[in-house]
Write a structure and sequence with these properties.
Helices cover 38% and strands 19% of the residues. It has four helices and four strands. It has helices at residues 7-18, 48-57, 78-87, 91-96, and strands spanning 2-3, 23-29, 39-44, 73-76.
């Protein structure tokens, strides 16, 4: 279950993904499969080859890309989520979701 994201943020993410940009969207998330995880960052890009390359550059397994048209994305969770948000200097998402 996803929550804590504004419609404007979601629309901006969708537009960036559609343009073939690497785009980040963090939101609160609850899933019984991951009881200790409360947030997820969706890293999206409509250019799946570009998203695959991005995953490889960040030591992430591209086979876990959710290849769902029109918004393919990779879900970042846990310590790797925090690490990549820091690398990308997405301080607002780190602060807002208390990941810093």
């Amino acid at each position: 279950m996803a929550f804590g994201v504004k419609r404007e943020e979601l629309n901006a993410w969708k537009e960036a993904v559609s343009r073939g940009e690497i785009a980040f969207l963090t939101h609160f998330w609850l899933d019984p499969r991951f009881p200790d995880i409360t947030t997820v960052t969706k890293v999206g890009c409509s250019d799946v080859q570009r998203l695959t390359s991005w995953c490889i550059e960040h030591d992430l397994p591209p086979q876990y890309i959710h290849n769902r048209s029109p918004f393919p994305h990779f879900d970042l969770l846990g310590p790797k989520q925090r690490e990549i948000l820091q690398q990308e200097e997405l301080w607002d998402q780190l602060e807002r979701f208390r990941l810093g």
